[in-house]
């Protein structure tokens, strides 16, 4: 029993040290240690900053630690408070876990570590705590599983495409706005970008799904503060798991064009023809909430929308 109590104190204090290190990293570097891309994705969905979240986490684990120390010294009075603290922490982490599982469909490694530590503390706190904690965790997960988290409106006019733009090339008096969702690691995407070389009648916006490393774009005005996660979110919103994808802005919404050959064919007709050309007769493809999607099976790279890796998640299809 004494060893178990000592172990719980060590875990609680060790967890507070881990969170304190994260706080220090944020204060020094301006951003948290992020083992995977999903960590940043989760941070963007919170109403307080990562620093604020970690300060709350530090105070929580310190509270658990000192409550356990007080109980060990006085042998009275705080057992119920410790149980309540552990259940409250598990509830908060269960909500965050369910959000990652059902909403963003990506798991933050740091968040899972914190959840594991809180689960371990609950398990070590006795059989009753295990039952209460398990019931709470299952109830929250089931609650999230029966909810829908689709956007309030799927209208393409509400897209924040501007936030996902890495670079823009504007020629004289562009007649169309086009957005290319791509990856520099996808050979099919590079083929589409090469087809857009030279000034034409389309204003081209490049919207990558991951960070740009060494890929160079001539004639583009770059935006260093772009968010690749915006572009991943757009793909996830419409269940698209392949790139490249070309979004063409029209007066009543966007067209989604998929497949390398289809995209290049569209670019040839819509951007390089001197005379306006009727292309992709939209009467054959009725709109759904201002959005049309054209798909081909060939000339695409598959990409995991769950952000469990970046370049490693991209595979080419012939």
Helix content estimate: 40-55%
Oligomer designation: single chain
- Structural class, judged by helices and strands? alpha+beta
Tell me the radius of gyration.
Answer: 25 Å
Taken together, the total number of domains comes to 2
Q: What's the count of strands?
A: 10
List the helices and strands and how they pair.
Elements: H1 2-29, H2 37-43, H3 50-74, H4 79-104, H5 109-124, H6 127-145, E1 167-169, E2 176-182, H7 187-195, E3 202-208, E4 221-222, H8 228-237, E5 242-243, E6 245-250, E7 253-258, H9 260-271, E8 291-294, E9 301-302, E10 315-316
Helix pairs in contact: 1-3, 1-5, 3-4, 4-5, 4-6, 5-6, 7-9
Structure description:
With about 325 residues, this protein is an alpha+beta fold. It folds into two domains: about 1-145, de novo design (two linked rop proteins), CATH 1.20.1440; about 155-315, Glutaredoxin (3-Layer(aba) Sandwich). Helices cover about 50% and strands about 15% of the residues. It has nine helices and ten strands. The protein has helices at about 1-30, 35-45, 50-75, 80-105, 110-125, 125-145, 185-195, 230-235, 260-270; strands at about 165-170, 175-180, 200-210, 220, 240-245, 245-250, 255-260, 290-295, 300, 315. It has a seven-stranded mixed beta sheet with strand order 4-1-3-2-6-7-8, with helices on one face. Strand 6 (about 245-250) and strand 7 (about 255-260) form a beta hairpin. Mean pLDDT is about 80; it is low at about 150-160, about 275-295 and about 305-315.
């Amino acid at each position: 029993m004494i060893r178990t109590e000592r172990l719980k104190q060590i875990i609680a204090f060790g967890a507070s040290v881990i969170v304190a290190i994260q706080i220090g990293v944020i204060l020094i570097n301006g951003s948290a240690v992020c083992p995977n891309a999903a960590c940043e994705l989760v941070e963007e969905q919170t109403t307080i900053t990562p620093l604020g979240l970690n300060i709350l986490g530090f105070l929580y684990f310190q509270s658990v630690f000192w409550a356990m120390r007080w109980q060990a010294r006085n042998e009275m009075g705080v057992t119920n408070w410790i149980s309540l603290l552990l259940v409250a922490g598990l509830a908060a982490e269960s909500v965050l876990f369910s959000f990652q599982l059902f909403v963003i469909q990506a798991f933050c490694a740091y968040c899972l570590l914190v959840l594991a530590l809180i689960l371990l503390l609950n398990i070590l706190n006795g059989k009753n705590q295990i039952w209460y904690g398990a019931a709470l965790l299952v109830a929250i997960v089931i609650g999230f599983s029966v909810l829908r988290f689709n956007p309030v409106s799927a209208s393409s006019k509400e897209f924040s495409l501007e936030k996902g733009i890495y670079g823009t090339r504007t020629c004289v008096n562009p007649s169309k706005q086009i957005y290319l969702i791509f990856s520099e690691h996808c050979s099919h995407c590079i083929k589409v970008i090469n087809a857009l070389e030279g000034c034409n009648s389309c204003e081209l916006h490049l919207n990558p799904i991951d960070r740009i490393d060494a890929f160079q774009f001539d004639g583009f005005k770059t935006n260093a503060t772009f968010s690749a996660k915006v572009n991943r979110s757009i793909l996830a919103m419409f269940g698209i798991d392949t790139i490249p994808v070309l979004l063409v802005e029209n007066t009543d919404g966007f067209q989604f064009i998929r497949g390398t050959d289809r995209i290049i064919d569209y670019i040839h007709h819509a951007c390089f023809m001197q005379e306006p050309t009727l292309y992709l007769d939209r009467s054959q493809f009725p709109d759904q909430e201002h959005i049309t999607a054209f798909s081909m099976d060939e000339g695409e790279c598959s990409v995991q929308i769950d952000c469990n890796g970046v370049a490693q998640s991209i595979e080419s299809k012939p």
